[in-house]
Amino acid sequence: MDDVVGPHGLGQKNERGERLVEWAQRNEVIIGNTWFEQPPRRKSTWKSPGDGSRNQIDFILISKRFRNALLISKTLPSADCYSDHMLLMGKIRVKLRKQKKTKPNIRLNLDLLTSDTDLCKKYNLKVKNKFEAFEEIEEVEELWQQLKRSITEAAEEEISTKERKTKQKWMTEDIPNLVDKRRKAKGKQEEYESIHREVRRKCEEAKEAWLNEKCREIDTFQRQAQIQCTGM
Protein backbone atom coordinates (compact mmCIF):
# COMPACT_ATOMS: atom_id res chain seq x y z
CA MET A 1 0.00 0.00 0.00
CA ASP A 2 2.91 2.36 0.74
CA ASP A 3 3.78 2.55 -2.96
CA VAL A 4 0.17 3.46 -3.90
CA VAL A 5 -1.07 5.84 -1.18
CA GLY A 6 1.20 8.67 -0.06
CA PRO A 7 1.64 10.04 3.48
CA HIS A 8 -0.40 13.20 2.88
CA GLY A 9 -3.97 11.94 2.50
CA LEU A 10 -6.90 13.39 4.44
CA GLY A 11 -9.41 11.47 6.58
CA GLN A 12 -9.91 7.74 7.12
CA LYS A 13 -10.46 5.18 4.36
CA ASN A 14 -13.84 3.47 4.20
CA GLU A 15 -14.79 0.37 2.22
CA ARG A 16 -14.83 2.27 -1.06
CA GLY A 17 -11.41 3.68 -0.30
CA GLU A 18 -10.03 0.21 0.35
CA ARG A 19 -11.43 -1.00 -2.99
CA LEU A 20 -9.81 1.96 -4.75
CA VAL A 21 -6.44 1.10 -3.21
CA GLU A 22 -6.80 -2.55 -4.26
CA TRP A 23 -7.70 -1.49 -7.79
CA ALA A 24 -4.70 0.86 -7.91
CA GLN A 25 -2.36 -1.93 -6.81
CA ARG A 26 -3.69 -4.30 -9.48
CA ASN A 27 -3.36 -1.69 -12.21
CA GLU A 28 0.04 -0.28 -11.22
CA VAL A 29 -1.17 3.27 -10.52
CA ILE A 30 -0.68 5.62 -7.58
CA ILE A 31 -3.14 7.98 -5.89
CA GLY A 32 -1.29 11.11 -6.87
CA ASN A 33 -2.79 13.77 -4.62
CA THR A 34 -1.85 11.86 -1.46
CA TRP A 35 1.85 12.37 -2.18
CA PHE A 36 1.99 16.17 -1.83
CA GLU A 37 2.06 18.00 1.48
CA GLN A 38 -0.61 20.70 1.55
CA PRO A 39 -2.71 22.42 4.24
CA PRO A 40 -6.03 20.61 4.93
CA ARG A 41 -8.09 23.13 2.90
CA ARG A 42 -5.92 22.28 -0.13
CA LYS A 43 -6.39 18.53 0.37
CA SER A 44 -10.16 18.33 0.90
CA THR A 45 -12.17 17.81 -2.28
CA TRP A 46 -15.71 17.71 -0.85
CA LYS A 47 -17.68 19.67 1.73
CA SER A 48 -20.92 18.74 3.45
CA PRO A 49 -24.02 20.98 3.24
CA GLY A 50 -23.39 24.08 5.30
CA ASP A 51 -19.66 23.33 5.20
CA GLY A 52 -19.89 21.37 8.45
CA SER A 53 -17.17 18.92 7.44
CA ARG A 54 -14.72 18.30 4.62
CA ASN A 55 -13.14 15.18 3.20
CA GLN A 56 -10.92 13.90 0.40
CA ILE A 57 -12.97 11.75 -1.97
CA ASP A 58 -11.69 12.82 -5.41
CA PHE A 59 -8.30 11.61 -6.58
CA ILE A 60 -5.72 11.92 -9.32
CA LEU A 61 -4.64 8.47 -10.48
CA ILE A 62 -1.45 8.18 -12.49
CA SER A 63 0.61 5.22 -13.67
CA LYS A 64 3.59 4.36 -11.48
CA ARG A 65 5.66 4.61 -14.62
CA PHE A 66 4.89 8.33 -14.84
CA ARG A 67 4.71 9.18 -11.13
CA ASN A 68 7.60 11.66 -11.41
CA ALA A 69 5.68 13.54 -14.10
CA LEU A 70 3.13 14.72 -11.50
CA LEU A 71 4.79 17.78 -9.98
CA ILE A 72 2.08 19.09 -7.64
CA SER A 73 -1.53 18.49 -6.68
CA LYS A 74 -3.97 20.62 -4.69
CA THR A 75 -7.57 21.79 -4.59
CA LEU A 76 -8.76 25.30 -5.39
CA PRO A 77 -11.47 26.08 -2.79
CA SER A 78 -12.17 29.56 -4.19
CA ALA A 79 -12.83 28.36 -7.76
CA ASP A 80 -16.28 29.34 -9.04
CA CYS A 81 -17.80 25.84 -9.23
CA TYR A 82 -21.45 25.45 -8.28
CA SER A 83 -20.88 22.11 -6.55
CA ASP A 84 -20.15 20.58 -3.16
CA HIS A 85 -16.91 19.29 -4.70
CA MET A 86 -13.80 21.48 -4.92
CA LEU A 87 -11.79 21.81 -8.11
CA LEU A 88 -8.82 19.43 -7.95
CA MET A 89 -5.81 20.31 -10.07
CA GLY A 90 -2.51 18.66 -10.84
CA LYS A 91 0.54 20.00 -12.63
CA ILE A 92 2.13 17.49 -14.98
CA ARG A 93 5.42 17.66 -16.85
CA VAL A 94 5.24 15.78 -20.12
CA LYS A 95 8.04 15.29 -22.61
CA LEU A 96 6.64 15.37 -26.12
CA ARG A 97 8.31 14.46 -29.34
CA LYS A 98 8.93 17.38 -31.64
CA GLN A 99 6.16 17.58 -34.19
CA LYS A 100 6.48 18.85 -37.71
CA LYS A 101 4.77 22.17 -38.23
CA THR A 102 1.60 21.85 -40.23
CA LYS A 103 -0.35 24.51 -42.02
CA PRO A 104 -3.00 25.87 -39.64
CA ASN A 105 -6.61 25.26 -40.57
CA ILE A 106 -8.26 28.37 -41.97
CA ARG A 107 -11.70 29.06 -40.53
CA LEU A 108 -13.70 30.82 -43.22
CA ASN A 109 -16.76 32.89 -42.44
CA LEU A 110 -19.15 30.79 -44.54
CA ASP A 111 -22.14 32.66 -43.09
CA LEU A 112 -21.28 35.46 -45.54
CA LEU A 113 -22.40 33.27 -48.45
CA THR A 114 -25.98 33.43 -47.17
CA SER A 115 -25.94 37.07 -46.06
CA ASP A 116 -23.97 38.69 -48.92
CA THR A 117 -25.56 38.07 -52.34
CA ASP A 118 -22.78 39.76 -54.33
CA LEU A 119 -20.10 37.74 -52.57
CA CYS A 120 -22.03 34.53 -53.24
CA LYS A 121 -22.21 35.33 -56.98
CA LYS A 122 -18.48 36.14 -57.12
CA TYR A 123 -17.63 32.93 -55.29
CA ASN A 124 -19.81 30.76 -57.57
CA LEU A 125 -18.28 32.38 -60.66
CA LYS A 126 -14.74 31.82 -59.40
CA VAL A 127 -15.45 28.14 -58.67
CA LYS A 128 -16.91 27.73 -62.15
CA ASN A 129 -13.96 29.44 -63.86
CA LYS A 130 -11.41 27.42 -61.91
CA PHE A 131 -13.13 24.14 -62.67
CA GLU A 132 -13.56 24.92 -66.37
CA ALA A 133 -9.85 25.74 -66.61
CA PHE A 134 -8.99 22.08 -66.10
CA GLU A 135 -8.74 19.79 -69.08
CA GLU A 136 -11.40 17.15 -69.50
CA ILE A 137 -10.88 14.43 -66.92
CA GLU A 138 -12.31 10.95 -67.17
CA GLU A 139 -11.14 9.49 -63.85
CA VAL A 140 -13.78 10.07 -61.15
CA GLU A 141 -11.28 10.35 -58.28
CA GLU A 142 -9.13 12.90 -60.12
CA LEU A 143 -12.25 14.84 -61.11
CA TRP A 144 -13.31 14.98 -57.46
CA GLN A 145 -9.87 16.20 -56.36
CA GLN A 146 -9.92 18.98 -58.95
CA LEU A 147 -13.43 20.02 -57.93
CA LYS A 148 -12.45 20.06 -54.26
CA ARG A 149 -9.38 22.14 -55.05
CA SER A 150 -11.50 24.61 -57.03
CA ILE A 151 -13.97 25.05 -54.17
CA THR A 152 -11.25 25.42 -51.53
CA GLU A 153 -9.10 27.88 -53.49
CA ALA A 154 -12.08 30.03 -54.44
CA ALA A 155 -13.24 30.15 -50.83
CA GLU A 156 -9.80 31.16 -49.53
CA GLU A 157 -9.56 33.91 -52.16
CA GLU A 158 -13.05 35.38 -51.80
CA ILE A 159 -14.28 34.69 -48.24
CA SER A 160 -12.77 36.35 -45.20
CA THR A 161 -11.62 34.36 -42.21
CA LYS A 162 -13.90 33.91 -39.24
CA GLU A 163 -13.02 35.46 -35.90
CA ARG A 164 -12.77 32.93 -33.11
CA LYS A 165 -15.53 33.29 -30.55
CA THR A 166 -15.11 32.27 -26.96
CA LYS A 167 -18.78 32.45 -26.03
CA GLN A 168 -21.91 30.68 -27.20
CA LYS A 169 -23.76 32.25 -30.13
CA TRP A 170 -26.89 32.69 -28.02
CA MET A 171 -25.13 34.42 -25.14
CA THR A 172 -26.11 38.05 -24.55
CA GLU A 173 -23.71 40.76 -23.37
CA ASP A 174 -25.03 40.89 -19.79
CA ILE A 175 -24.43 37.18 -19.05
CA PRO A 176 -20.58 37.35 -18.81
CA ASN A 177 -20.97 40.33 -16.47
CA LEU A 178 -23.31 38.33 -14.24
CA VAL A 179 -20.91 35.37 -14.23
CA ASP A 180 -18.09 37.69 -13.15
CA LYS A 181 -20.34 39.15 -10.46
CA ARG A 182 -21.14 35.62 -9.24
CA ARG A 183 -17.44 34.78 -9.08
CA LYS A 184 -16.77 37.83 -6.90
CA ALA A 185 -19.58 36.78 -4.54
CA LYS A 186 -17.83 33.50 -3.74
CA GLY A 187 -17.95 33.05 0.03
CA LYS A 188 -21.22 35.01 0.43
CA GLN A 189 -23.58 32.07 0.18
CA GLU A 190 -26.95 33.86 -0.10
CA GLU A 191 -25.70 36.44 -2.59
CA TYR A 192 -23.93 33.75 -4.60
CA GLU A 193 -27.08 31.59 -4.76
CA SER A 194 -29.18 34.57 -5.85
CA ILE A 195 -26.80 35.55 -8.64
CA HIS A 196 -26.45 31.93 -9.75
CA ARG A 197 -30.23 31.64 -10.16
CA GLU A 198 -30.23 34.86 -12.19
CA VAL A 199 -27.42 33.54 -14.41
CA ARG A 200 -29.38 30.35 -15.11
CA ARG A 201 -32.55 32.31 -15.86
CA LYS A 202 -30.75 34.69 -18.22
CA CYS A 203 -29.05 31.78 -20.03
CA GLU A 204 -32.34 29.93 -20.50
CA GLU A 205 -34.09 33.08 -21.79
CA ALA A 206 -31.23 33.99 -24.15
CA LYS A 207 -30.95 30.46 -25.53
CA GLU A 208 -34.70 30.19 -26.11
CA ALA A 209 -34.77 33.58 -27.87
CA TRP A 210 -31.85 32.58 -30.10
CA LEU A 211 -33.44 29.24 -31.02
CA ASN A 212 -36.76 30.94 -31.81
CA GLU A 213 -34.97 33.37 -34.11
CA LYS A 214 -33.21 30.51 -35.91
CA CYS A 215 -36.54 28.71 -36.33
CA ARG A 216 -38.02 31.84 -37.90
CA GLU A 217 -35.06 32.06 -40.29
CA ILE A 218 -35.48 28.41 -41.32
CA ASP A 219 -39.21 28.95 -41.86
CA THR A 220 -38.47 31.98 -44.05
CA PHE A 221 -35.94 30.05 -46.16
CA GLN A 222 -38.43 27.19 -46.60
CA ARG A 223 -41.15 29.55 -47.82
CA GLN A 224 -38.75 31.20 -50.25
CA ALA A 225 -37.66 27.80 -51.59
CA GLN A 226 -41.29 26.74 -52.08
CA ILE A 227 -42.04 29.95 -53.99
CA GLN A 228 -39.01 29.41 -56.23
CA CYS A 229 -40.02 25.78 -56.92
CA THR A 230 -43.57 26.88 -57.77
CA GLY A 231 -42.30 29.45 -60.23
CA MET A 232 -40.03 26.98 -62.07
From TrEMBL:
It comes from the Eukaryota. InterPro entries: Endo/exonu/phosph_ase_sf. This is Craniofacial development protein 2-like. It comes from Elysia marginata.
